[in-house]
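Re-run with default settings, no changes from the original entry. Doing this only to confirm the output is reproducible before filing.
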Amino acid sequence: MILQEQLKNFSIYTNKKLLIIMLLGFASGLPRLLTLSTLSIWLFEMGLSKTTIGLFTLVGLSYSLKFLWAPFIDSLKIPFFTNYLGRRRSWIILTQILLISSLIFLGYSNPSVDLRLTVLAAVLVAFFSASQDIVIDAFRVESLEKELYGAGAGMYVFGYRIGMLVAGAGALYLATFYEWSIVYILMSLLILIGSFAILFASEPEKNSLIDTQKKKNIFHWFNDSVINPFRDFMKKGNWKIIILFVVLYKFGDALVSVMANPFYLEMEFSKIEIANVSK
């Protein structure tokens, strides 16, 4: 009897919507380490200083500052894409196309020859990855019924962690045998898992967002989508502290994550050993 109840509870995770959420979580988790700890190993092998490697931590600010452009992604329609895929799915597909392109760009950059291109590519990857997170979070909330919110969050985190594992340990295994450019190209292609998943999904029926095509005045839209939400937020007495917390709360973890791998390499651990133990 107990076993039957447990199997019944587990069966919720075979829901098609939850499986799609898990695959989207995988696509969200994959790019993060490719601009942080995994990238730091590549930069160290190219002979860059620890100071330069540490400064790459700032690339991750896109994840903390994504609330600044979230209102635009929430409200704007994409010509052609939105008509065929819907608002949420079109934004997910677009951000994933741009994310794949920027990862390939990062893979083909050479930090020892032109560091500026590598910085630009890493910034683009982080920006499009953060933008993808915005849309996937909205899609997850709007596409699931309330009773599936908990399971949906669990499946998303599970997929996200698997993506981080692949971008961490998986990338280091590959980098032992292949050039970094090939590693980043292969990692970028894995984003397509999320793209295929969203093509099999349905556009969420819930849609309380502003239809920009019905707005006659762009200033009205900007006021409703951007100014008013921030104005409401700033009515909170401690809004400055909240913003500082959002921007800085993961900064220490990111810095340690980026600088740990160069330290391991200096201690003469191999990439496979680092992947086996720390990832």
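The chain is about 75% helix and 0% strand. The chain has one domain: 18-210+254-278.
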